């Protein structure tokens, strides 16, 4: 395969990744799910989620649909590693954790917390 073709394929994949992150941060579950191919496999911190329905459920339960366990959920990319057949992204998730807590009593509402670092492996076919 020529280097120009590989560069074009890689740029296309990176565009999809950018669209994916944007959809997560906008809590647009429909656009988010369009970034997953038919045979999608999501690996989060070593846990494999291999079914599109389950992938959607994971995102909805976290709060990427605007509802779920956390509100104002945000993805902040920390590092990205790119190869011809895979992209690995280290990210930090943050959001508001519902319910009373130490910080919420001082601030009068739920606190914004950084609560998870994750490594996402995106295999490209």
Features:
5-stranded antiparallel beta sheet, alpha+beta, 125 residues, Nuclear Transport Factor 2, Chain: A
Describe the structure.
- By secondary structure, this protein is α+β, with helices and mostly antiparallel strands.
- The protein has a single domain (3-123), classed as Nuclear Transport Factor 2, Chain: A.
- 38% of the residues lie in helices and 33% in strands.
- The chain has helices spanning 3-26, 29-34, 52-62, 102-107, and strands at 42-44, 47-49, 71-82, 86-96, 112-123.
- β3 (71-82) and β4 (86-96) form a beta hairpin.
- The protein is globular and about 55 Å long.
- The protein starts with a helix and ends with a strand.
- Residues 102-106 have low confidence and may be disordered.
- Classify the oligomer: single chain
What is the tally of helical segments? 4
Radius of gyration of CA atoms, rounded to a whole number: 16 Å
CATH topology, anyone? Nuclear Transport Factor 2, Chain: A
What is the 3D shape? Answer: globular
Largest sheet, described in full?
5 strands, antiparallel
DSSP E strands, number: 5
- What would CATH call the class? Alpha Beta
Strand order of the largest sheet: 2-1-5-4-3
- Helix-strand category: alpha+beta
Q: What is the typical, i.e. mean, pLDDT?
A: 79
* Low-pLDDT stretches: 102-106
Q: Give the number of domains.
A: 1
């Amino acid at each position: 395969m020529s280097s120009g073709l590989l560069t074009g394929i890689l740029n296309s994949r990176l565009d999809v990744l950018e669209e994916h992150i944007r959809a997560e941060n906008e809590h647009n579950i429909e656009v988010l799910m369009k970034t997953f191919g038919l045979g999608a496999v999501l690996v989060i911190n070593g846990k494999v989620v291999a079914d599109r329905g389950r992938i959607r459920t994971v995102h909805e339960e976290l709060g990427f649909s605007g509802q779920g366990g956390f509100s104002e959920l945000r993805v902040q990319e920390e590092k990205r590693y790119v190869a011809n057949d895979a992209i690995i992204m280290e990210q930090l998730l943050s959001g508001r954790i519902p319910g009373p807590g130490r910080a919420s009593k001082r601030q009068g509402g739920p606190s914004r917390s950084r609560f998870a670092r994750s490594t996402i492996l995106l295999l490209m076919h």
